[in-house]
Structures are given as C-alpha cells and as structure tokens.
Write a structure and sequence with these properties.
The chain is mostly helical and about 325 residues long. The protein has 15 helices and no strands. Helix 12 (about 230-245) runs antiparallel to helix 13 (about 250-265).
Length: about 325
C-alpha cells in the first residue's frame, strides 16, 4: 500500500486515535495519577473535536483538571485551558473562548513561549472567525519570527492561512496550507482535517476540481478514522459533487450512496436536500458528457460556471461546519 494513499493515511490515523482512546482506561487501571494525567492530557489534546458531534474530550478535560489541581501542576492546567479555548472556538462560542484566553494572559502564571504561541494563534483564529481581520493580523505579528519548536509552532501558520482564505488571498492561502500539510506532525489529526478541507475549498474556488477532490478525499478518510460521521457525510457529498463535475457519474453515485447509508444511521436532516439534488444530478442526462468534464494535463477543461458555483455553495456548508469560517 502506498504510504501516502488515503487508505494508508486512514489506517495510521485510526491506529493513533485508538491508542489515545485505550490509553485512558489503561492508565486509570494502573492507579498511577501521573500516568493517568499524562494519558488524559494527550487524549484531550489530540482527539479531534467537531461542532455538533459528541466527544469524550470534555470529560477528559474535567478529569485532567481535577488531577492537575491535586498534583499542583500549573503548566498542565494552562495547556488544558488552551485546549478548552480551542474547543469553544470550534463550537463557535467565541465570547467564552476569548474570556478563557484573557484569564490566561492576566493570571498569576505568565505563559511560556510555547504556551504564548498557542494562545496568540488561537486568539487570531477566533478573530478571523469574527471577521476581525485587522485585529487577527495584529495578533499574529509577535509570532512572525522563527517557528516555536514542537507541534504548537504550526498554529500561527494555520492561523495565517485561515486569514488568507477569509481575505480572498487564495494563491497565498493555498501555498500556506500546502506548507502546513507537509509539516504537521501526525498527532495533529484535527488540524490536518481542517487544513485539507480548507485547501479543498480554495481549489474549488480556483476551479481545480480534480485537485480539490484529492484533498477532500483525504479529509474524508481522516474523518472516518476519527468516527466524525456528520463530517464524513458532508465530505461524501462534496467529493461526489466533484466526481460529477469531472464527469465520473459512477464514482459520484457511489459517494452519494455512501452518504445516504450514513444518513440512515446518523440522521442529518439539513443535508438530505443536498443529497437528493446531488444524486439526481449525477445520474441525470448529460452527466459525464462535456460541459462539466475535467480534462487531463495542462489543458485541463474546467467545470462550467454553473457547476462551479453549485460546488462553491455546497462547500460553504461543510466549511462552516468544519471551521466556523465564512468563505468569500
């Protein structure tokens, strides 16, 4: 199996996330509070969370906070508070997220360089979602120097890419997102999913459906590994639409069929009209014959304007669900 294939990527992510999940009960059974806290923190930091889907992360954070207080570990408490702020951002509870960051900045313990990088990047990402672009730019300015070591060092780059997307600087955004995707540590599954979705959106707007399909297919595989089925359904719809735009009716119908099966198990009423429309269009007359075809090589035939606009409108739905941003 190609180690860079969607299937291999999904298998690695599934193994990693399963290890995170199993480490928590195993650590509880050992009776070692330090090991238990370490397992809880790692699971809370790296288990993907998406708005509108149940997650064990909130309970893990509560349990980890209690242990960190008992053990007198202020640095751990800071990291847990930062993760909670990210969760609030994902769930679009921006006021509470900013209040959590304010408490960290004004508290008795001054955040260290790594924590401050995480804090400022998160504040900027919230400001982007609030459409406060100048404020986000100013927040990121202190992070313009060398990248902080470790996984948190990628967060400012992610924030800049999100700002570029929102400002419509799509060429810059695509370059930034590709850099992020090349460098992100494997632990950052949540951020990788969003970066793939964002790059897919940018490529749709740039009328590159084949390239967009590759990014969203990879995002779908990671979401499947994480068991975020509401997002998997959205990715099936997006990838199916791109298959249809490229004239591949069979692959499009396979995606829509998978989405329909998942909707029966995990009802998503707001997506059912899109599912019916996409499936009908993929199987309707004219699909795969010319106007919405993807060609090959440098002379690639682009999607017709109507198909492109439909894909952009659909992507607004899953982009907002994934990141809380509003595409241009």
């Amino acid at each position: 199996m190609n180690p860079r294939s969607p299937e291999a990527t999904e298998a690695r992510a599934r193994a990693f996330l399963s290890e995170l999940l199993m480490a928590v009960p195993l650590a509880r059974g050992q009776g070692d509070k330090a090991a238990r806290l370490a397992a809880l923190e790692r699971a809370a930091l790296f288990t993907p969370v998406f708005a509108g889907w149940p997650s064990p992360v909130d309970a893990w954070l509560d349990e980890a906070r209690t242990l960190a207080h008992e053990r007198g570990e202020p640095a751990t408490l800071t990291r847990l508070a930062l993760r909670e702020a990210v969760l609030l951002m994902r769930r679009r509870d921006f006021d509470r997220a900013l209040a959590a960051l304010d408490r960290l900045e004004t508290g008795d313990r001054e955040p260290g360089p790594v924590e401050r990088c995480w804090l400022l990047a998160t504040r900027a990402r919230i400001q982007v979602r609030q459409q406060a672009f100048d404020a986000a730019q100013a927040t990121l300015e202190p992070l313009a120097g060398p990248r902080v070591d470790g996984w948190t060092g990628w967060l400012p780059q992610i924030a800049r890419a999100e700002l570029q997307v929102e400002r419509g600087e799509l060429a810059l955004a695509a370059a930034s997102l590709r850099t992020v995707l090349l460098g992100l540590p494997h632990e950052m599954v949540e951020e990788r999913i969003q970066a793939l979705q964002s790059l897919g959106f940018v490529l749709i707007v740039q009328v590159q459906p084949r390239a967009a399909r590759e990014q969203l297919e990879m995002a779908k595989c990671l979401l499947r590994a994480a068991g975020i089925w509401s997002e998997v359904i959205q990715m099936e719809l997006a990838v199916g639409s791109l298959h249809a735009a490229c004239g591949d009716a069979a692959s499009a119908q396979a995606c829509f069929g998978s989405a329909a099966d998942l909707c029966e198990r995990y009802p998503q009423p707001e997506l059912e009209p899109l599912l019916g429309l996409g499936s009908a269009r993929a199987g309707g007359p004219g699909t795969g014959r010319g106007s919405s075809r993807c060609g090959a090589g440098s002379g690639e035939t682009l999607c017709a304007a109507g198909e492109r606009d439909r894909l952009r409108q659909h992507d607004r739905l899953h982009f907002r669900a994934a990141s809380g941003c509003r595409p241009p």
